[in-house]
Recover the amino acids of this structure.
């Protein structure tokens, strides 16, 4: 596994070096004051930081990966809750979500306790939160407040936790290599986002949901999903899948990633904001980077668990 990891890390670093060089060349040709070039440079610099953090987490093993995504969930939950309708009566419920539910979810993921982390949030936390809010005796906008808090937990914690949960799968002949499943998921889904943007700029004519996300086009969706799926098929050698299986799984998770981005864009439009946050320079907030992974991770996890895992 170490040899494969070094090869993959080398490929990623080579791509980042090429992107950095291209950005510097464009800056000289177009001028450093160009807003597009500034945005591109900020995004590339942010990717350097994110790749370094992910690489360190991977080298730290299961504990490092679980802690990394727990931190991401905490930041994403914070971003989501800032855009929800809350009242003083919800403080107990929100405190429980941040300081009890989130740690327990990731602790159970780290312990590979599937029977707990698969139902803890959608069953027990969903019942606990409205109880805590109701005990405070404030009924105004109760359903809206509770529903938004529950949705925040589902998106920022439950769905995201399925990324490190991939480490708990037991796949015959693939022991000790589960980190590559996370690499496969993130690379394919994030590549799809980028390629959809590129294909949309090159060939985009028919907008899919102009009132929600004007930049998303049918041509961009088809080109990006197919290109990223071919990339996923080319990465079959780091997975337990055949070439055809890797392509099919890539097709599923890239489509789910697209729908995830669309849903998150709809929420931002509803709240009248451009980005979920500004913690990552050039990338907005954590949810802006995780939106496609949020919807694809649970689907990818359960497909792999159902067909490949010994359970």
């Amino acid at each position: 596994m170490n040899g494969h990891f070094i090869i993959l890390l080398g490929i990623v670093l080579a791509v980042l070096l090429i992107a950095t060089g291209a950005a510097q060349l464009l800056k000289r040709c177009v001028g450093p004051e160009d807003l597009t070039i500034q945005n591109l440079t900020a995004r590339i610099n942010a990717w350097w930081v994110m790749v370094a953090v992910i690489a360190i987490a991977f080298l730290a093993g299961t504990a490092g990966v679980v802690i990394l995504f727990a931190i991401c969930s905490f930041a994403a939950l914070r971003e989501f809750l800032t855009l929800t309708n809350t009242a003083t009566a919800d403080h107990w419920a929100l405190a429980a979500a941040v300081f009890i539910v989130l740690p327990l979810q990731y602790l159970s993921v780290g312990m590979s306790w599937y029977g707990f982390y698969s139902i803890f949030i959608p069953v027990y936390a969903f019942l606990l939160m409205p109880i805590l809010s109701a005990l405070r005796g404030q009924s105004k906008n109760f359903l809206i407040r509770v529903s938004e808090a529950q949705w925040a937990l589902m998106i920022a914690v439950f769905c995201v936790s399925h990324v490190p949960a991939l480490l708990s799968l037991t796949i015959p002949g693939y022991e000790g290599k589960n980190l590559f499943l996370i690499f496969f998921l993130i690379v394919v889904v994030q590549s799809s986002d980028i390629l959809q943007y590129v294909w949309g700029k090159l060939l985009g004519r028919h907008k899919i949901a102009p009132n929600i996300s004007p930049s998303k086009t049918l041509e961009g969706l088809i080109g990006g999903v197919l290109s990223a799926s071919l990339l996923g098929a080319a990465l079959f050698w780091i997975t337990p899948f055949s070439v055809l299986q890797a392509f099919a799984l890539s097709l599923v998770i890239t489509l789910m990633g697209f729908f995830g981005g669309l849903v998150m864009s709809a929420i931002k439009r509803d709240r009248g904001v451009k980005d979920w946050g500004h913690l990552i320079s050039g990338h907005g907030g954590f949810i802006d980077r995780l939106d496609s992974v949020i919807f694809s991770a649970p689907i990818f996890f359960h497909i792999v668990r159902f067909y490949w895992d010994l359970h």
Remarks:
- The first helix runs from residue 2 to 30.
